UniProtKB/TrEMBL annotation:
This is DUF1524 domain-containing protein. Residues 246-396 form the GmrSD restriction endonucleases C-terminal domain. Pfam families: GmrSD_C, RAMA. Residues 410-509 form the RAMA domain.
Length: 509
């Protein structure tokens, strides 16, 4: 009875001149908030009605009404539905700007009203197609025995690493209107994944990476198929802040040689890294060719210590110093491998040699190539020397799985040497790869809308047949000798304002 007395029903009657969407948003703000997907859905169908689209047909196309899309996922501190997360990622792929989960709806509304010439019906077709592909990639990535293409493999690895920021890059590359070939898309994914995984191997912070992923889209989105890989490399290698840089080979190798790998990473991440090593043995690298034609399956193999953690029973040493060294080596990368659960249980703490030893059982029952190498090279035992050698070889496998461009060192810039608005020059934009020599600059002010020039080496500018020391000097000439802020006066033809490129350079630090 008390429940019946507390129940209240509110009926809102609207006239033909009232905006139902505005009222809907107001009620949502004052009550229990709906997800971004709920708000976007209501807005989309209101716009479709205004366009005269058959909304019944459109409802049939709306893809987000299944358990897959209604599932709750977490992004940082914000729990949300998978549909809301996808729409946020899709929007980033369209605008090339970082979007917080809480601003997805308002940013979507602004995009559709001010930043695209497509009708809502056209946008719905694109969203539906990409949502279906996204779901297919996600489901395939979760299947441990599926034969994954490069993008699906990336989805798998990022799901284990709990990284969502690169999904927007994948959506940009694989849109229905993409101009990129599958091999080009795979090569871009190789570089983006290398940037992520090398930072994960070093356990570097990831709080600023979402901004970088969105800016990478903005930076490279207009590049042709022949140029986009170089543009992505140029952007990622230009990152010099400790919070965003792309680590080089020397730093990764130095860090992993002595680290206790087993204790440093979660079991799922250890499996991903060891699976990459196995795939490397099978010929799968960023530039390699498969020897076997199939990657290792991604079922939950168990991470096994070749030299067991409880080594004292069957692996005695001479003294306490040797015991301390053994303890220091047992959790290193070179002492870890993948085994099936039953095999792991049968050999876990066994001795290495002998008929019932771990080596003999591996030879008899295991099929992984990474373990074949161990078996072939340890006929006289397994010890600290071999662990160090295998660690170095496995680091090589990881570096070649996630390579960096030739001569990239991954150095960071000292904070004391950072740029500022006052010190940044036009030449700095060229050095950072944000603008190229030969770029055409056009005036942003209507009064001189025909003014245009060409950026030259060293930050000089060619305008009206004369070379000026900088875009600022050229801007003064356009204005008839009057000074002004050239960062706001010029923009790249069909591209960013110089002020925005300067802001991007400052944000990279």
């Amino acid at each position: 009875m008390s429940l019946q007395l507390s129940l209240q029903l509110v009926i809102i009657r609207l006239t033909a001149t009232e905006d139902s969407q505005e009222i809907f948003e107001t009620l949502n703000a004052r009550g229990t908030p709906l997800t971004a997907a709920d708000l976007i859905k209501n807005y989309v169908f209101q716009r479709l009605r205004l366009e005269g689209t058959n909304t019944a047909d459109a409802y049939a196309r709306w893809p987000f009404e299944t358990k897959f899309w209604e599932a709750e996922v977490s992004v940082g501190r914000f729990p949300t539905t998978r549909s809301a997360l996808f729409l946020s990622q899709w929007l980033v792929s369209q605008v090339g700007r970082e979007i917080s989960p809480r601003s997805t709806f308002s940013r979507f509304k602004f995009f559709t009203e001010h930043e695209t010439e497509r009708t809502m019906s056209e946008l719905l077709d694109i969203i539906t197609a990409q949502a279906k592909h996204y779901e297919e990639l996600t489901r395939r990535a979760a299947d441990p025995h599926a034969d994954l293409d490069r993008v699906a493999l990336h989805f798998y690895r990022m799901s284990v690493a709990q990284v969502e920021i690169t999904k927007a890059i994948a959506l940009w590359l694989t849109s229905p209107e993409t101009k990129y070939r599958p091999q080009t898309i795979a090569s871009v994914i190789d570089r983006v994944e290398s940037w992520i995984m090398r930072r994960r191997l070093l356990r570097l912070q990831s709080g600023d990476l979402g901004r970088i992923a969105s800016e990478l889209i903005s930076y490279a989105r207009n590049a042709a198929d022949d140029d986009v890989i170089a543009k992505v490399e140029q952007y990622l290698t230009g990152l010099v802040s400790t919070s965003t840089y792309w680590p080089g080979d020397d730093e990764v190798r130095s860090s992993l040689q002595h680290v206790h790998f087993y204790q440093r990473f979660s079991q799922p991440m250890q499996r991903v890294f060891l699976q990459a090593v196995e795939d490397w043995h099978r010929g799968y690298t960023a530039n390699g060719h498969s020897k076997t034609g199939i990657r290792v399956h991604r079922a939950k193999q168990q991470v096994e210590h070749l030299l067991p953690r409880t080594w004292q029973t069957h692996w005695p040493v001479a003294d306490a110093a040797a015991g301390a060294e053994r303890d220091d080596n047992v959790h290193r990368l070179g002492n870890l491998t993948l085994l099936t659960g039953p095999l792991n249980a049968s050999v876990s703490n066994a001795s290495w040699l002998g008929d019932g030893g771990k080596r003999a059982e591996l030879r008899k029952h295991d099929v992984l190539l990474m373990n074949r190498v161990v078996i072939d090279g340890s006929a006289d035992g397994w010890d600290e020397v071999r662990i160090a050698e295998r660690t170095d070889a496995m680091i090589t496998a990881l570096l070649e799985t996630w390579p960096v461009p030739e001569r990239h060192e991954g150095k960071t810039v000292d904070r004391s040497a950072r740029f500022s608005k006052a010190t940044t020059s036009y030449a700095d934009l060229i050095s950072a790869g944000l603008i190229e020599v030969g770029a055409v600059l056009v005036c942003t002010e209507e009064r001189w809308h025909d003014a245009r020039g060409t950026l030259l080496a060293g930050g000089q500018m060619l305008y009206d047949g004369k070379t000026y020391s900088s875009p600022a000097a050229a801007a003064n000439a356009v204005r008839g000798g009057r000074s002004g802020n050239a960062w706001y006066f010029w923009r790249v033809e069909n591209g960013a304002w110089l002020k925005d490129l300067r802001e991007e350079l400052l944000r990279r630090q």
